[in-house]
Q: What sequence folds into this?
């Protein structure tokens, strides 16, 4: 009888620890969906980072298909979002300052910030690319991009093998290859693909014991800003240099007044590949810095040469506040680790019999 009780306890402990591990690797909060990248059991972070760098050979980079801007006609929207605008406008604007002294370091291409770069990832069995930018955070590991570059609208799952290459140009990696450790999207995106929530945060592992912010600097980020301002939108679109070089649009953003959309629009001809690229207000070419208030999200057939970007409101601020203090926790397959812990716990329990 005691023998069977021991076996039962062993199974219960195994299932419990496995569930705990899954909970921490993939977590649903009330408003966020977070995925912590797992590494193989026994593999160090440095080995995993090198593995991702080795995976993304120049050949795979060149095979990557620029992720299309959203096809909003096929996506669900939040019907109640039209009632939110007045509430959002009533919130006080908040800005987190960037590290200008680092961002102003001479860019490889004059006028193009080192904080902006390309992201590469695997969606299903396909290689894709988007754009992204480093913003200031307590952990110094944060980039902003579009949610459709992080949580797939086709596979309904987080993408894999995600990397960031700042100031990418024609397969050169002037500042190295940076590997993702945690992916954040809002629940409205993962559950409904709400275009108002097409915003993602990615935290990166350190590289050579350095944080990305310490290497390329960071941009300021603004929340609850106004709906009219001069915008510099950066990205790596396919229709300019075939995604191999950064470009930008400059225009005055405006509120398009769609019934289900609370974001903004601006005149811009960039197409697929520019997804996730930053919208900067108060951008200075002398310091190569500005205040990020949106990302490139989608275009519409009925309004050609217009780019749309989601509004950075209090819900985005909440996601930012949670992610900015997220420090490195290594998640592995942990079968051996789980087994060891199970044995330890089992021994303590079994000693009671």
A:
């Amino acid at each position: 009888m005691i023998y069977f009780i021991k076996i039962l306890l062993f199974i219960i402990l195994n299932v419990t620890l496995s569930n705990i591990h899954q909970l921490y690797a993939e977590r649903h909060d009330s408003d966020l969906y977070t995925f912590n990248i797992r590494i193989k059991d026994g593999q160090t972070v440095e080995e995993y980072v090198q593995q991702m760098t080795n995976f993304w050979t120049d050949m795979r980079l060149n095979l990557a298909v620029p992720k299309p801007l959203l096809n909003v006609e096929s996506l669900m929207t939040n019907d109640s979002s039209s009632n939110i605008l007045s509430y959002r406008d009533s919130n006080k604007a908040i800005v987190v300052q960037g590290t200008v002294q680092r961002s102003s370091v001479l860019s490889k291409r004059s006028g193009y910030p080192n904080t902006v770069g390309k992201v590469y990832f695997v969606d299903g069995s396909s290689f894709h690319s988007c754009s992204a930018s480093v913003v200031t955070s307590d952990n110094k590991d944060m980039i902003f991009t579009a949610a459709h570059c992080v949580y797939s609208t086709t596979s309904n799952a987080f993408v894999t093998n995600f990397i960031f290459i700042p100031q990418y140009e024609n397969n050169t990696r002037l500042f190295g290859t940076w590997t993702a450790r945690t992916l954040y999207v809002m629940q409205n995106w993962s559950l409904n693909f709400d275009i108002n929530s097409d915003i993602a945060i990615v935290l990166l592992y350190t590289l050579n014991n350095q944080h990305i912010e310490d290497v390329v600097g960071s941009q300021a980020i603004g929340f609850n800003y106004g709906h009219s301002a001069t915008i510099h939108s950066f990205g790596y679109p396919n229709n300019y240099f075939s995604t191999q070089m950064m470009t930008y649009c400059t225009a005055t953003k405006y509120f398009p007044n769609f019934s289900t959309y609370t974001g903004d629009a601006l005149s811009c001809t960039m197409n697929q590949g520019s997804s996730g690229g930053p919208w900067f207000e108060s951008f200075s070419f002398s310091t190569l810095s500005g205040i990020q208030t949106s990302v490139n999200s989608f275009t519409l057939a009925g309004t050609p040469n217009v780019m749309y970007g989601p509004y950075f409101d209090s819900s985005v601020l909440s996601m930012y506040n949670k992610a900015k203090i997220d420090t490195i926790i290594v998640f592995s397959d942990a079968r051996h680790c789980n087994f060891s812990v199970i044995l330890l716990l089992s021994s303590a329990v079994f000693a009671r019999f």
Observations:
- The radius of gyration is 22 Å.
- The longest helix spans residues 2-25.
- The chain has nine helices and 20 strands.
